[in-house]
Amino acid sequence: MIATPDLPLWAAIVVAVLTISGAIVTLAGAIGLVRFDTFYDRLHPPTLGSSGGTILLVLASIVCFSVLRTRISVHEILIALFVTLTTPVTFILLARASLYRDRIEGSPDAPSIDGED
């Protein structure tokens, strides 16, 4: 079993607040995914939830391991960088593929092109 790390009280509070905040932001993104009706509306909340939640959780990890190791722990920044760059790009590609398919099929759910009726 892993022993509980001996964090100072101030660091434990900061880590707890950041972790709970990250979980709430991610939960809000998941709830937005369920609440919205159309595919195009559902794309936005999970992107913000995963990116925002990841950033807060990475900050909590940086604080925790920097305090425990008594040196700055920055390798978590790579995780945040990859997640915050790849998640929106993936959703943009998914939206473009769906938009192309819906426009080819003439689906009424597809957003119209600006300037057209």
Automatic annotation (TrEMBL):
Keywords: Membrane, Transmembrane, Transmembrane helix
Stored Pfam families: PhaG_MnhG_YufB (PF03334)
Record has Membrane as a keyword: yes
Domain of life, per lineage: Bacteria
InterPro entries: PhaG_MnhG_YufB
Transmembrane segments: 12-36, 48-68, 74-95
Protein name from the UniProt record: Monovalent cation/H(+) antiporter subunit G
Organism encoding this protein: Novosphingobium rhizovicinum
Upper classification of the organism: Bacteria, Pseudomonadati, Pseudomonadota, Alphaproteobacteria, Sphingomonadales
